[in-house]
Amino acid sequence: MQIRYFANYRTITGRRTEEVAAPATMLALLEQLSTRYGAELRRWLLSADGLAKGENAVILLNGRHIEHLDGVATTLKEEDVVSLFPLVAGG
Amino acid sequence: MTGQGAEENRYIRQSTLAQIGTKGQRRIGQARVAVIGLGALGSVSAELLARAGVGFLRIVDKDFISLHNLQRTLMYTEQDAAQSEFKAVAAKRHLAEINSEVAVEALVLDIDSSNVEALIADVDYVVDATDNFKIRYLLNEACHKHGKTWVYTGVLAAFGATMVIPPQGPCFRCLSPTPPGSGKNLTCVEVGVLSSITVTMASIAVASVIKLIVGGADAGSGPGAGSGPGADSGPGAASTADAVPKPGAAPKPGAAPKPGAAPKPGAAPKPGAYITLDLWNMSYDELHIQQNPNCPCCVKEEYEYL
Question: Which of A22, B77, B172, B272 fits A76 for a cystine, CB–CB 3.0-4.6 Å?
Fold first, then answer.
């Protein structure tokens, strides 16, 4: 599957996109990416207890926000595209 | 005061644009736009809209000007900050000096569910230049309820995002179903903001509004609008070339639109197009946000925040 990073997630990961083998669920993917790229990405992607997505993280599965699907329990397939970026408030 | 000759003279460089023309300029002169928030994004947006000759501007902010605003708010001066003037009051004065033909209504107001609908009900388009999600969720519902297109814009550090949100959606709740919390390191107060990104994002937002005005139709019903959710090149696809001319692309002979003609296909902001820009790393991307088929706002018309 393909992961697309935007905004400061690109700075943290040093990548725009990457291909990874699809884990079973979105939570497993977020945990996998957080382990690979460290505490800074984890702080954005995951809640403090690691059981939910981070509050400001927008996580799209094929263009749809995962909260419109099954949240972090959403299952993943190899052909999926996941887009990750923070929702920004500053004005 | 706005004679035809004076209008053509003042706006000649704008009406000469093939995409705008004299008809487009007339539409701009008849347009009514609300700019909500008058910080970095709002001061630039209001100034650009006034210089463009928008007929009516409603500008709204509750705060006063501080010295630390001047790094990125183009309209205000040291004198405004020294006098701790309200942003809306100072902006109205500066806008009158910039273009006295524009009717400006300035409101020093704390926006909440009791007043947000009145702010947007009698304008054509709404520019979101706020610095918080509470007001954005209010604007989202108020604009949907009253059939208004609004433009979300947000900035942080050196990156920013913008999305035109038409009444048919996808709406802000399709992008983010619930307001995020105020976590650490998520605001410009904590991580700072590059002045260039605020000016750039405000410019993109104003360009979207001008396109909508000149096109004379809301995104989605105008020429070149996407065919709805899923119209992108693939699931969650990012692309960079849908709304801008390809560099080096040679114009076809005779293809240039006549002044006043409707925008060329591809020019109108597309529903669901989420533009994100990083000026430090110089990257531009456009994602396609899919509408939630069960969205409480833009599908079910259940307004939880109003």
Answer: A22
| Tokens encoding B242 | 């849908």
* Contact across the interface for A60 and B236, Cβ inside 8 Å: yes
Rounded to whole angstroms, the Cα distance separating B99 from B47 reads 9
CATH assignment, B22-222+229-306: 3.40.50.720
In this prediction the ipTM stands at 0.93
Which residues between 60 and 119 in chain B have a beta carbon less than 8 angstroms from any beta carbon of chain A?
none
Alpha helix ranges (H) inside chain B: 4-10, 12-15, 21-30, 40-52, 78-82, 87-98, 116-120, 133-145, 172-175, 188-191, 195-215
Catalytic residue among B143, B171, B188, B298: B188
- Domain span at residue A37 reads 2-86
Report CB contact under 8 Å: A8, B157.
Answer: yes
Classify residue A91: in a domain, yes or no.
Answer: no
Model confidence band, residue B242 (pLDDT cutoffs 50, 70, 90): very low
pLDDT of B258 higher than 60: no
CATH code: domain of residue A25: 3.10.20.30
Per-domain boundaries in chain B? 22-222+229-306
Render pLDDT for A29-77 as a digit per residue (tens, 0 to 9).
Answer: 999 999 999 999 999 999 999 999 998 899 999 999 999 999 999 999 9
